[in-house]
Each structure stands twice: as structure tokens, then as C-alpha cells.
Design goal:
This protein has one domain. It has 6 helices and no strands. Helix 5 packs antiparallel against helix 6. The chain starts with a helix and ends with a helix.
């Protein structure tokens, strides 16, 4: 249990730093790698070995959300608006919008489910 708490905390910290602009994401003009897209769309963590460019790396970070363990983690992301903050930093919003919608829906479903 302690390991899961530490893992969630580490992921939340990284997402917070990205959202605050403390960690810069490097977008590229390259397409998303097929395996990265597939894992993301199926709500799976993205493997670092599948990351081929900066865009993949951004999805890897966003996919941390699929590996969170505790309700509080989802509530924290939701209340702090971390996903919106990260989206606002992204330059090519059109390219990333479908992935942010997937994440936003996933978080909202978890928050609503846990509010019952």
C-alpha cells in the first residue's frame, strides 16, 4: 500500500509541475506512434520503450492517470484543474484535443463514481 501511495504522489507531482510550466513538454510535428496511441486509447500506461518522439512523451505523461491507485488522486487532479492547465500549455491543441478529452472523461467518471 505504501508503494502505491508513493507512486501516486510521484505521478501527481509530475503532472502538477507540467501544468505549472516547471517542466517543459517538447511537441514535435511527428505523428503519434501507433503503440502509444493504442495503449492510450485503451486506458493503459504507455511504455517508455514505445516512445519515439516528443508527442509520444506527452501522452506517456498523460497516461500516468490510467495507473493511479487512489480516489484522492483523481479528486486532486479534478479539483486543481491539472489537465486543463496542461492542455493550455500545449501549442498544437488540435492534435492533442482527442487525447485530452479521453483523459478528462476518464477522470470525471472516476470522480463521479467515487462521489456516490
Amino acid at each position: 500500500m505504501l508503494c502505491q501511495v508513493i507512486r501516486d504522489t510521484d505521478k501527481l507531482d509530475l503532472l502538477y509541475l507540467i501544468g505549472e510550466g516547471s517542466i517543459e513538454e517538447n511537441e514535435t510535428n511527428e505523428p503519434f506512434s501507433p503503440q502509444v496511441k493504442q495503449d492510450f486509447i485503451h486506458h493503459r500506461s504507455v511504455k517508455r520503450t514505445d516512445v519515439k518522439n516528443g508527442n509520444d512523451f506527452i501522452l506517456l505523461h498523460l497516461a500516468f492517470i490510467f495507473d493511479l491507485n487512489y480516489d484522492y488522486s483523481f479528486q486532486y487532479i479534478y479539483e486543481k484543474g491539472l489537465i486543463e492547465k496542461i492542455y493550455n500549455i500545449i501549442k498544437d491543441k488540435e492534435r492533442f484535443e482527442p487525447y485530452f478529452k479521453i483523459i478528462q472523461k476518464y477522470i470525471e467518471e472516476r470522480v463521479i463514481k467515487n462521489a456516490r
